[in-house]
Amino acid sequence: MEQEKLSAISHKIYNKADLLYEFVIKYSSMMQETHDYGTGELLSMIEVHLLTYIDQNPGITVSQLAGLWNRTKGSISQQVKKLTTNGYIQKVRHESNGKLVLLYATPSGKKLSAEHMHYDVVDIMNTVQRLLRTCSTEEIDAFYKVLAEYIKLLDE
Prior knowledge:
globular; two-stranded antiparallel ribbon; 4 strands; Arc Repressor Mutant, subunit A; mainly alpha
């Protein structure tokens, strides 16, 4: 009897874990897809969020971004290179430490960042409206609360 109870509990846990894995896989794929955020150029969610982060934190370094985003410096450098090549960010050597490279959004990068933020607000509003068809406001709030706590667990 005890083994059956344990088996039922395990099955329930695995089903919930599978749901989380499916979400992560699908969301990760979505992050790699490219979108036009209002400028005619296609960028991935990762690229445009990186640009917006640089725009909101002028003078940040690749090393700092890598630490904040839990990515390798090489991975961040590849994204920065593409954004630099496309004219969205510029690299500036630190005045007193020539080895330190600071990142800044260019005027076109600032424009794209603003377009992206507008795109995200509209997209989030549409997503919430769709979720409200089957979920209550309290359920959506609970989801975000659990998500915030899950992030804390991952950061430990």
